[in-house]
Amino acid sequence: MKPTNKILAFSGSTRKASFNVKLLNLAVAAAQEHGAQVTHIDLREFPLPIYDGDLEATSGVPENAVQLRELLLTHDGLLIASPEYNGSVSALLKNTLDWCSRPANGVEGLAPFRGKAVGLMAASLSPFGGLRGIIDLRGIMAKMGAVVLAEDVAIASAQNAFDPTDAFVDSNTAKLVDQFTSNLIGLVAKLHPNTDASKVER
Ligand SMILES: Cc1cc2nc3c(=O)[nH]c(=O)nc-3n(C[C@H](O)[C@H](O)[C@H](O)COP(=O)(O)O)c2cc1C
Question: Where would I find the NADPH-dependent FMN reductase-like domain in this sequence (predicted)?
Fold first, then answer.
């Protein structure tokens, strides 16, 4: 499958009023303004059972995980916003990553993640902005063969970070996210120089 210089964006929370979805929406818009091609998906549209080795042995990898793997395989960068639950990544996100790491259709398990440029963000109610979740996710993504951008975005006190139009209250936060997305696009282009880099603004 031919990779393209595209970014796949998703949130580790599917809650309707999710602060991470608001953050992701703004980061996606910023990335698009920088010229990136972004596919923004909602994990609610890819429901998966909790990973179970017996289920996999009897029924194979669920169709939704196979579809997600196809999407991952056709993108060179990932943009993830996820809440921190009890000091780590959300179960939704971890379960999705676990299913997507399983071999399917003759493709090796971690192929969808290897060499992918990944930008990590979090929004949380706490003053730490979900940073502990980001740190754990950094380790998980690295273990799966991805290349995680050095910079990340952690939005503290997320209940106060967005205005009624879902824009950032603080213009400095908007600048931070803008720079972060620009850096992610730069990393995608660096890691995948032969895949449509002309569309990337640096
Ligand atoms: C089970 C659970 C555990 C949580 N643990 C943490 C935590 O460890 N650190 C934190 O900053 N916020 C924690 N929170 C609060 C989340 O920051 C808050 O629910 C946030 O709004 C979730 O993200 P969302 O708005 O994108 O859904 C927790 C929330 C839940 C439901």
Answer: 6-158
Reported as a pLDDT band with limits 50, 70 and 90, residue 5 is confident
Which protein residue's CA is at the shortest distance from atom 9 of ligand 1? 84
User: pLDDT of 110-157, one tens digit each?
Assistant: 999 999 999 999 999 999 999 999 999 999 999 999 999 999 999 999
**HEC secondary structure over the chain:** CCCCCEEEEEECCCCCCCHHHHHHHHHHHHHHHCCCEEEECCHHHCCCCCCCHHHHHHHCCCHHHHHHHHHHHCCCEEEEECCEECCEECHHHHHHHHHHCCCECCECCCCCCCCCEEEEEEECCCCCCCHHHHHHHHHHHHHCCCEECCCCEEECCHHHCECCCCCECCHHHHHHHHHHHHHHHHHHHHHCCCCCHHHCCC
pLDDT tens, position by position, 44-66: 999 999 999 999 999 999 999 99
Percent of the chain with pLDDT over 90: 93
Domains and CATH numbers, the chain: 4-189 (3.40.50.360)
Ligand 1 pocket by C-beta < 6 Å: which residues?
Answer: 13, 15, 18-20, 83-87, 123-126, 128, 130
| Residue identifier of the C-alpha nearest atom 17 of ligand 1 | 124
Nearest protein Cα to ligand 1, atom 2? 85
